[in-house]
Design goal:
Two copies of one chain form a homodimer. The first copy, chain A, is mostly helical. Helices cover 70% and strands 1% of the residues of chain A. In chain A, strands 1-2 form a two-stranded antiparallel ribbon. In chain A, a hairpin with a 2-residue loop joins strand 1 and strand 2. The N terminus of chain A is likely disordered. Chains A and B meet through helix 3, helix 5, helix 6 and helix 7 of A and helix 5, helix 6 and helix 7 of B.
Chain lengths: 335, 335
């Protein structure tokens, strides 16, 4: 976004947003700890390990901000925020098993400490713990939004699994995976926040779209980062997505633009999981040459613009300004 | 139960129950197929594989019977039955990954055909698909009962994981694991059935207890079968539970009754996962000598008696008689 694009004049910075909502984030943290009350001590231990892993609580923050767009302070937004973080954490636990990951944010993954079985079950528990607590709010729209998000998350993951090493994945299909895998839970967070704050059905739908657009923009920014990270010396290895067989937007954009023989060779290597350092460098050079990275960045910004336009139905407020800052922050991260 | 113990005169047999409810079971099957409508074809394929694996649909049958205790035919019991089967199937998919199982009911497990990743995700999908559809019924008590069951299932599994190779597990702790792992979903099926049929809160609670008691009885019958199966030449290997590190009631009963040195040696071997054929034979002989198998069988029957007493609040009806037959059948299976 750079400067000036937000649709309302916005003097807040992300640091100021964190500062402004620090008491709320702290209360969310305390709900997270209080709700980790399984009768199985191992579940609490595993969940605490990953929940204390330095996540930024973006989903609870978005939920809470959306709940305050109508101007009054709702009652249950912070509890629901803690529960949406449980669901997010459940996906991380299962993801680490699926990816056989050994590190998350620089710390050993739960599966490395407690094994795959315990990680799968702790994930199952966090999902159902959250859904059970959410049911207690007796709000049908909230139940529906949360259960739909969980369904989409699982579908997105499995669609992605099927798309692994499929370099000729159409862009529209890829965007659907991103929508389900990354957008759905953010969309639910924003919609549920709005519902807690008493927005109209139409506004709840706009908040759903807002979260969905922010989520897609966030993932596309991630795709772009993956192929440009080394240029900014961030200690990240370039092209990790591809090395893991993941097909993302820059690759989808560049492949049809390669010479036929090179394209054929790259496609075959990706399908066989045989991409080497040299291939990666050639592909990245081609991405620069054909504007694939710029294209990805532009698409990401378009989704953020769409997200901001979803907020026009709401009057100016601190919460709305903060939402715009958070949306902007999510695609302008450096890592 | 043998003959005569059912609390009402009951001329039905299990075969007659299946025959009587065949159209309902067929409709449940058609709901199962219709609801397998993920946008990810791989999910439908995996789910169909395991759902077509010859399961008896006991949970949907119990749900449906409980919904008819009040004498009228409810509308949504068969759909809900299909959804409870989705949840049960999700647990089987995850169980097979946890146990690294290669066969289920004589067919290759989903994880063997499609891998662990796809099995975990298909399980996640079936859980959340069911919860999303259940939310659409907009019945808070149903939401609560189903979400609680899912939470208990995960807790029971993880408690069992922690109890693996812990031969000195107290009986009460073991029974809690059984209650969560096996009882909770059957309890939810029966309670939800009752709710659909419009029973009172008190009756819904009795149906919950009925399902819980049937579930515990079922598991204890299974524990007993595992140490006696070979005697009836059923082609089942004796003591499979123990060989997999699972501590069950016959073992919990016999261990304190062994001579101190033998007990110490057995405990150490179980903890080290070093039980051999000879140990198993000695343990089984001791179980016969000390009445541990009879004790397990008696406990199982006590839970069935308790279950039957949970039905006394309902007037005599075909559905009630069928419930009694099903409960009896679940602990008098041969395999």
């Amino acid at each position: 976004m750079g400067g000036g694009q937000p649709v309302v004049q916005n003097s807040l910075t992300m640091d100021e947003v964190w500062e402004l909502y620090r008491p709320d984030i702290e209360e969310i943290e305390s709900h997270i700890r209080r709700n980790l009350n399984s009768e199985a001590p191992l579940i609490n231990e595993i969940a605490a390990h990953i929940l204390d892993g330095g996540g930024k609580r973006i989903r609870p923050l978005l939920l809470s901000l959306c709940s305050r767009l109508t101007g009054y302070i709702p009652k249950d937004d912070l509890v629901l925020g803690s529960l949406i973080e449980f669901i997010h954490t459940a996906t991380l636990l299962h993801d680490d098993v699926l990816d056989e990951a050994t590190l998350r944010r620089g710390r050993p993954t739960a599966r490395r400490i407690w094994g795959n079985r315990a990680s799968i079950l702790a994930g199952d528990y966090l999902y159902s713990r959250a859904m059970h607590h959410i049911a207690a709010f007796k709000n049908h729209e909230v139940n529906d939004a949360m259960a739909l998000a969980c369904k989409r998350l699982a579908e997105g993951e499995i669609l992605q699994l099927c798309a692994n090493r499929q370099p000729l994945l159409p862009e529209a299909e890829y965007l659907r995976i991103v929508e389900y895998k990354t957008g759905a839970l953010l969309a639910a967070a924003c919609k549920v926040g709005g519902l807690m704050g008493g927005v109209s059905s139409l506004q709840a739908e706009e908040l759903y779209r807002f979260g969905l657009n922010v989520g897609i923009a966030f993932q596309l920014a991630d795709d772009w980062l993956d192929y440009t990270a080394d240029e900014r010396n961030l200690g990240k290895t370039l092209g990790q997505d591809l090395m893991q067989g993941m097909v993302t937007l820059p690759l989808i954009h560049v492949l049809p633009r390669l010479q036929a023989d090179e394209r054929k060779s790259m496609v075959a290597k990706i399908e066989r999981n045989a991409i080497e350092e040299g291939d990666l460098l050639r592909l990245t050079a081609s991405m620069h040459e054909h504007g694939s990275l710029g294209y990805t960045r532009t698409r990401s910004r378009e989704y953020i613009d769409a997200a901001l336009s979803n907020l026009t139905t709401f009057d100016d407020s601190t919460a709305k300004r903060a939402l715009i800052v958070v949306a902007d922050y999510m695609v302008n991260r450096d890592s």
